[in-house]
Amino acid sequence: MPHRKVTAIIRSDALEKVESRLQEFGVRGISVSRVKGYGEYANFYARDWLTSHARIEIFTAAEHAEQIVAAIIDAAHVGQAGDGIVAILPVEKLYRIRSRAEAFAGEI
C-alpha cells in the first residue's frame, strides 16, 4: 500500500484546534515545526514581511490522506488570507529507524 506525506502550513493560533481534530480522527503521529514566511498574506509592517506559522507533517497510508486534509482544512479555516496551505506528496518508501525495516501502511 503506498504512503503519502501530508504537509500543512497553518496559522499558529489554529494549531491546537488542528491537533485536536487530528487526534479525534485517529492520526497516530504528527510533527510540528514553527516556521516563518509569506505568501498570499504578508506582514507589510515587518521589515522582512514574514509571518509566523506552524507546519504540520504527517506520514499516512494513501487512502487516509484526503480525509486528513479535510480535517485540517475544516479545523484551520477562518476564511481570511493567510489561513494556510495543505499539500499531499507521494512517498516512495518509509523506514523505521528503530527496527531498521520498511514501514508499511498499516503500521503508520
TrEMBL record:
List the GO biological process terms.
regulation of nitrogen utilization
Q: Which UniProt keywords apply?
A: Phosphoprotein
- Molecular function as annotated in GO: ATP binding; enzyme regulator activity
Q: Which residues are recorded as modified (O-UMP-tyrosine)?
A: Y45
KW Cytoplasm (keyword) present: no
User: Which Gene Ontology CC terms are recorded?
Assistant: cytosol
Q: Which Pfam families does the record match to this protein? A: P-II
* Name of the molecule in the record: Transcriptional regulator
Per the UniProt record, the lineage of the source organism begins with: Bacteria, Pseudomonadati, Pseudomonadota, Gammaproteobacteria, Candidatus Tenderiales
